[in-house]
Every structure is written in structure tokens, then in C-alpha cells.
Design brief:
The protein is mostly helical. It is built from 13 helices and 3 strands. It has 2 domains: 84 residues, Orthogonal Bundle (DNA polymerase, domain 1), CATH 1.10.150.130; 128 residues, hpI Integrase, Chain A (Orthogonal Bundle). The radius of gyration is 23 Å and the shape is globular. It starts with a helix and ends with a helix.
Length: 294
């Protein structure tokens, strides 16, 4: 099992070009499956559909929610399909498995006034303040994923045209729009703040730490959370919340769903359609609040 898992992860990295985060997620699933297999004193070649269903049942008892179980099922389907293609197995035991339907939880968002409060709470007079404002402005203006912002480099940016080229899930590249306010914040940061953070070892990453290295995802999460707390925002604010707010506010403003899909980098429009449910929820709330016979 361990040898097959290692070979599969190498396949994902070298032939599919999938991200480190995706490889880690698959590795965690396969490690859990290997541990369960050892406890059952079984072998990989003896795995059948019933055994895989038993593994999923165990993971559900361990507390995995429907979304996580769905991801685990997909990982196993891809893994066992690859094993058959490589000749490790004759039959695919994961093919009959049905992935559980994900919970219909709606993404949280910030209100437009809260976004304004957050952004206007930062005075970019100091280098780190200028950097943090630019980070928040870009998140909200462009709807970037956390990994996309952390990986963004100077050569990927064209502020004269207001565009940024980013690499998203599946190593796919797309062009995102950078709004006027975000461009202004970026120009201020690049002119007055970033030069003070650069060291001899600095790369061309746009956003740098106090040591001159590229900001890590964990550090960016801390920055976003800290800035929201200082602004008095009474919510748990994190980078993806700004992405959700970006998409929701575009939809509320009348943007076409296909355009939002393109801006977010969603491969399937069904992923984007969740924001239509958010908008319906808002309409219901407004109707209940203001209609005399609601």
C-alpha cells in the first residue's frame, strides 16, 4: 500500500502537475486507508467495494462531515482507477462507491460597509501597514485564493492595464482584474514599502515579510485576522471570506454568473452557482424585514 501510494503521489506531481496542497490532501486519505488496512490485517489486492465502504463508515464515525467524506471518496476513486490502469489491480473496487452529497452550507460574507470599514481602518504611512492594505485590497478587488496571492510575482502584474496573472488550482493560469483602489494601494506599496523589505535573498514575490521572504499562507491569514480585529469587525475574517464577499457583491451588483465564474477561476459553473443562493437568502431577509405582510 505504501509503495503504491508513493508512486501515485509522484504521478500527481510529475504527470498531472497538481498542487502541493492537493498532493497532501490525497496523501492524508491514503495514509488513513493504509492504517485502516493494517488494522484489518488486509492487503491492497484484497480490497473490495465492501471493504472501502467499511473504511468510509469508519471515517464517518470518526467525525468527518459530508464534504470531507466526498473528497475522501473522490481520492479513492482516482487512486484505484490509476491502480487498474497501471496493472496493479484487475478490477476497480472503488468504481461503485457513491460520494455523499455535500452539505448545502452557504458561504459567509462581509457586508459592503464592513469591507469599507476594514479597508479604511488602515493608514498606509508605515511599510507594513501599506503592505497589509494592499493585500486586503487585492483580495477583495480580485477574489484571489490565498495560494494565488502568496505566489503572485512582480512579473505577473500589469498595473497600467489593471491586470494580474495568477496560477490557480490544477496549475491553471488566468488573468484577473485589479480595481482602481487596489491598483493605488499596490502602487503605494511597491514604491514606498516593498523596497524597505527587500533583502539580497528576496525573490520577485509581490508580498514580502519583514525578513524579505515571500509571505506564507499562515502569515497572510494572521494579517487578515489581525486587521479585522483592529477594525472592530465582529466576525471571524479570513482570506476566503473576502473571496466570497467579492463574488457575492458582484452578483448583487448585477454581474453575470459566467463572468463571476471566470474571475474566480471555477472550472464548473455549478461551483459558482452557490452565490445565487446567497443572493436569494439576502432577498428573503430584506423582504421579511420590510414587507408589511411578509
Amino acid at each position: 500500500m505504501e509503495a503504491a501510494s508513493d508512486a501515485f503521489i509522484r504521478f500527481l506531481a510529475t504527470e498531472r502537475g497538481l498542487s502541493d496542497a492537493y498532493q497532501l490532501s490525497v496523501r492524508q486519505t491514503l495514509d488513513a486507508l493504509a492504517g485502516w488496512l493494517r488494522r484489518q490485517s488486509g492487503e491492497l489486492r484484497d480490497m473490495g467495494t465492501d471493504e472501502l465502504a467499511g473504511f468510509l463508515s469508519m471515517r464517518k464515525r470518526d467525525g468527518l462531515n459530508a464534504a470531507s467524506l466526498r473528497i475522501t471518496t473522490v481520492h479513492m476513486k482516482v487512486f484505484f482507477r490509476w491502480l487498474v490502469a497501471q496493472g496493479y489491480l484487475e478490477m476497480d473496487p472503488a468504481e461503485p462507491l457513491l460520494a455523499p452529497r455535500p452539505d448545502q452550507t452557504l458561504p459567509q460574507t462581509l457586508h459592503a460597509t464592513e469591507i469599507t470599514t476594514l479597508l479604511e481602518s488602515i493608514d498606509p504611512a508605515q511599510p507594513l501597514d501599506s503592505r497589509d492594505l494592499a493585500i486586503l485590497e487585492v483580495f477583495y478587488a480580485s477574489g484571489l485564493r490565498l495560494s494565488e496571492l502568496c505566489q503572485a510575482r512582480l512579473e505577473m502584474m500589469d498595473l497600467d492595464e489593471g491586470f494580474l496573472r495568477v496560477t490557480g488550482k490544477g496549475n491553471k493560469t488566468r488573468i484577473v482584474r485589479v480595481g482602481t483602489k487596489a491598483c493605488e494601494a499596490l502602487q503605494d506599496y511597491l514604491k514606498n514599502a516593498r523596497p524597505t523589505l527587500v533583502t539580497k535573498r528576496s525573490s520577485s514575490h509581490i508580498f514580502l515579510s519583514v525578513r524579505g521572504s515571500a509571505l506564507s499562507p499562515d502569515r497572510v491569514r494572521q494579517i487578515v485576522k489581525r486587521r479585522a480585529a483592529l477594525a472592530g469587525i465582529p466576525h471571524n475574517v479570513y482570506p476566503h471570506l473576502l473571496r466570497h464577499s467579492f463574488a457575492t457583491h458582484l452578483l448583487e451588483g448585477g454581474a453575470d454568473l459566467r463572468v463571476i465564474q471566470e474571475l474566480l477561476g471555477h472550472a464548473d459553473i455549478s461551483t459558482t452557482q452557490i452565490y445565487t443562493h446567497v443572493d436569494r437568502q439576502r432577498l428573503k431577509a430584506v423582504h421579511r424585514q420590510f414587507h408589511p405582510r411578509a
